[in-house]
Amino acid sequence: MHEMDCSDAVAKMCDFLDRELSAEEIAMVERHLAECGGCRNAFRWEGSVISLMKQCAQEKAPEGLIGRLMDGLD
Asked: How far is it, in rounded angstroms, from Cα 51 to Cα 30?
């Protein structure tokens, strides 16, 4: 098993945050994050953005918005 560098970690960021990696890959990313403050901050920031998006997605659209959007596409 090779050591992970920053480009490897960033390439796996979304899958890591979505919990779609194997146990081995998760361990590799976690080891890298323990040693790399830059990647740790990037993962933390991206995780915050994803969390905020999930919260916003739970909001109901105002009445009639979808119809107005669809009308605008015509």
From this structure: 19
